[in-house]
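Priority: medium. Attachment 1 of 2:
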């Protein structure tokens, strides 16, 4: 039940960010155990930070 809630939240968060990714980009989102206790806003912030970090690495 908790796993499915985290999965639904992460899918919703990623669905709003897919257009910002470069064409052909492959993104794997992995939830660690603390994600079960994280709020939607915390998950959203973490995903945004991870994507910023990944995009900065591809720009190098």
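Attachment 2 of 2:
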């Amino acid at each position: 039940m908790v796993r499915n809630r985290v999965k639904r939240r992460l899918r919703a968060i990623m669905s709003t960010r897919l257009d910002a990714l470069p064409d052909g980009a492959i993104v794997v989102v992995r939830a660690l155990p603390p994600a079960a206790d994280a709020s939607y806003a915390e998950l959203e912030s973490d995903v945004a930070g991870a994507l910023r970090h990944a995009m900065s690495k591809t720009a190098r």
